[in-house]
Amino acid sequence: DLPFTPNLELGRNSRFHWFDPYAPETATRAHELAAKLVAPYRGDPRRIGYYTDNEVGWWRGALFAFYVQEPPRSITKQRLIETLTTHYKDDFGRFNRDFVPPNGVASFADLLVSEGEPVRLRPGGRGIDVVRIWAKQISGLYYRMMSDALKAADPEALNLGDRLPIYYDPDAVAAMAAHVDVISTNYNVDAPDGWLARYFFDGIAKIAQRKPVLISERSEEHTSELQSRFGISY
Question: What interhelical angle do 75-87 and 127-153 show, nearest 10?
Fold first, then answer.
């Protein structure tokens, strides 16, 4: 009879991650699956809300490196090239100062049709700026899409987010805040003495735009410090 908060794995089941999230069928799958996954719980007064996924991890470098190597038919790669073109004002020379493109790639059009070839950050450049823009764009799409699907499937339940891992991307948290009811995070020990990284929670609170923060998983070693620092009881 306890209240419960199911984890739907909605993003993974709808093949958002590491496929083609900007393809129209991705949103269609998310809506269809949300309706199916919440069906056992919808209308149950014990359900508080849903986690859309667990510890997705928005690894900005991996997100950029993966999609820039996708084939040109990928709508998500097309959107990435549009982002690069806009950021560099259609000047491939400026892009070249920040990145080392594959051999033979001399324009954004070439970069679009290249496939399976890595693009590397150039030492001393500012390529990380557009990598961060891309990570925020992808994560923002995820949170917006999952929010829309959940609202359509069970509008009375809370959207509890995707349970952040212990290492989170601030840009992804900023993108998340506009679409979830609660920012959920797992926080497990990463040192044998059980010390608590206070900047972890202070950082989320600063980015969260006054959204509440839920600690959805924690190790026993952290219990006493969480209680003294934040007044949390278990």
Answer: 130
In which residue are the tokens 């069928």 written?
Answer: 25
3-state secondary structure the chain: CCCECCECCHHHHCCCCCCCCCCHHHHHHHHHHHHHHHCCCCCCCCECEEECCCCCCCCHHHHHHHHHCCCCCCHHHHHHHHHHHHHCCCCHHHHHHHEECCCCCCCHHHHHHCCCCCCEECCCCCHHHHHHHHHHHHHHHHHHHHHHHHHHHCCCCEECCCCECCCCCHHHHHHHHCCCCCEEEEECCCCCCCCCCHHHHHHHHHHCCCCCEEEEEECHHHHHHHHHHHCCCC
Supply the pTM of this predicted model.
0.90
As a whole number of angstroms, the distance between CA 148 and CA 208 comes to 20
Residues 123-144 have pLDDT tens digits of 999 999 999 999 999 999 999 9
* Tens-digit pLDDT profile for residues 157-174: 999 999 998 888 999 999
Measured in degrees and rounded to the nearest 5, phi and psi for residue 156 equal -85, -15
> How close are the terminal C-alpha atoms of the chain, in Å?
18
φ, ψ at 186 (rounded to 5°): -90, 145
Tokens representing 58? 């928005």
* Lookup result for tokens 């009375």: 156
